[in-house]
Amino acid sequence: MILVIGGGGVGQNIALRFHELGDAVGLLIRPHQALNFPFSVWRSLAEVPLAQVSVIFLTVKDSQILPLAQRLSHQIQRDTVLVHTAGSVPLSLLESVVGKQSGVVYPLQTFTPGRWVRWGTFPVFWEGHPQAEIYANRLAGAEHQVHHATSEQRLRLHIGAVFAANFTNALLHIADTLAQPVGNWQTYLPLLQEVTQKLQGLSPIQAQTGPAKRKDDETLHLHTNYLRQNYPELAPLYEGLTHYILQHIS
């Protein structure tokens, strides 16, 4: 049996994926959560038949991985493989608890509870126990999407993901503020869709447009002056990103 601990977006998607693949799977969630899945869902570790579990996926907050692994190490079978899915947590953390029975399976995707991802359309990175590679391949369902990555490489990938996805959401939140009252964040969706479409065939440098790319100093000064007067907390961010574009992408 595969046990997934953590009822957030990552845990839900991984558990459902394994169920769809025909695996026996169970999901351990918080007591207050109300989830309905066509497989076992537990709210207490005491309910889980740990003797039947061959691999455990820890899909919890980074800070919860070590204490949870330490607790499990006293209850699981000696041959049970313990895997975490975090981008920034080194394999050595699990190895310090369960030795070589540890691994990492890191899907490089954004996960939201109740929203189902399309496995096979994004990369999955693995490290550690050979079972980690096997389960990474099963999740992805596409061999070309599965790659080995060391803990340092995975950390770099995770930082890059924050820039690519999390910061994009934050920047769109800023754009939403600036668009009021004539528009909102959805006003920019066609723009974002065209950007991502261009990136299917162009590099970020080739796809870049805008005043910094054109070295349009007059427009850049107009923008920064407006922000300094009306949104002073945004001016340094605008200037920093503009400087980066001028140095690396123009």
Describe the structure.
This protein has 250 residues and is an alpha/beta fold. It has two domains: 2-149, Rossmann fold; 154-248, N-(1-d-carboxylethyl)-l-norvaline Dehydrogenase, domain 2 (Orthogonal Bundle). The chain contains ten helices and eight strands. An eight-stranded mixed β-sheet has the order 3-2-1-4-5-6-7-8, with helices on both faces. α2 packs parallel to α3 and α9 packs antiparallel against α10. The radius of gyration is 22 Å and the shape is elongated.
Would you list the SSEs in sequence order as H and E? EHEEEHEHEEHEHHHHHH
Beta-strand content bin? 5-15%
Integer tally of domains: 2
Largest sheet: 8 strands, mixed
Radius of gyration: 22 Å
Spell out the key features of this protein.
10 helices, elongated, 250 residues, N-(1-d-carboxylethyl)-l-norvaline Dehydrogenase, domain 2, 2 domains, eight-stranded mixed β-sheet, 8 strands, alpha/beta, Rossmann fold
Q: Which helices and strands appear, and what pairs or packs with what?
A:
Layout: E1 2-5, H1 9-20, E2 25-28, E3 40-42, E4 55-58, H2 62-73, E5 81-84, H3 91-98, E6 102-107, E7 124-128, H4 130-140, E8 146-148, H5 151-179, H6 189-198, H7 204-207, H8 211-214, H9 217-230, H10 235-248
Parallel strand pairs: 1-2, 1-4, 2-3, 4-5, 5-6, 7-8
Antiparallel strand pairs: 6-7
Helix pairs in contact: 2-3, 9-10
